[in-house]
Amino acid sequence: MNNLNQNEVSVTNFGVEFTPASLAIQNYDAMVEQTKAIAAKYDNLMITERTLKAAKQSRADLRKFRTAIEDKRKEVRREYAKPYNDFKDRVDALTGIIDDAIAPIDQGVKELDERKRQERENKVKEEIAEVAKSRGLLPNEIKLNPTWLNKSISGIERTRQIADIADYVKKQKNQRKSDREAVTRYAQALDLDAGGWLGLVDQGVELTDVMARMDNYAEQQKQEAAAEKQRQEAQAAIDALHQKKVGDQVIDTETGEVVDAGPEKYSYVIEVSATPDEMDALQAFINALQAYMTENGLSWAVR
């Protein structure tokens, strides 16, 4: 592509023939005096019911006179602007030709800049992947900083910044792993499920804060359990006031209902094969056992 040379069109030979126009109102001074005289006729005009109609007519006449002057100004302005409008159209035609030439060049420059930017981004991503691998990290764990794509930053500075961020991420991961282990052990000591507390660690909550919350929760659970135990004991004491044991059953003395029927009982038949002497010995053992149970308030019968 050739550059402009001295024989080509340039702004220095962009000549314009221009004659400054002169606008003058004929008999201007006389018109000023006439206008003042017309305006003076309405000075200190008193508006009353009797003069209202004439006042409105006077106002209409003055507005009509003013409109006529404005219309003349607009007419002159249109004529006055014609040379400039024609000049502007010609200038626009020239700049349009230049714009048409600039457009493809501008597009080409932008496309090349974008390709170079994409190349820089790919290179930075490769460097991020290498640094991440050296720290045992995944590439997506290191967020790409847009300033790393700037042409002004040196490769050494960019590498240093990437390494610093990678080291920080690695440190945070190690700390989070350690905190998770600590929370798991602490949850076991407090007899709590670690799941929800580990979620707080993953959200970035400080370990000391998580443990403080665990302490509060465990204490709250302990207090609630103690309160429930007291409630049950109090209820049992109240119930005992109007309950009586009859045989194996507990009866509510106010309602007559069976509160606790005791364990369900079953009948069993045992068949024994023995000699007469062995049977006599077994019968003697059973009689002795039954006597012992009766003495100690135990219920057992053999039929």
Notes on the protein architecture:
With 303 residues, this protein is mainly α. The chain contains six helices and three strands. Among the domains are: 154-240; 274-303. A three-stranded antiparallel beta sheet has the order 1-2-3. A hairpin with a 2-residue loop joins strand 1 and strand 2. The model has no long low-confidence stretch (mean pLDDT 83).
| Widest sheet: strand ordering | 1-2-3
Rg to the nearest angstrom? 54 Å
Average the pLDDT over all residues and give the rounded result.
83
**Unreliable parts:** none
- Give the class from helix and strand content and strand pairing: mainly alpha
Strand proportion, as a percent range, falls in: under 5%
> What letter string, H or E per element, gives the SSE order?
HHHHHEEEH
For the largest beta-sheet, the strand count, sense and barrel status come to:
3 strands, antiparallel
State the helix count: 6
Q: Give the number of DSSP strands.
A: 3
Q: End-to-end span in angstroms?
A: 126 Å
**Overall body shape:** elongated
Q: What's the quaternary structure here? A: single chain
Percent helix range = 55-70%
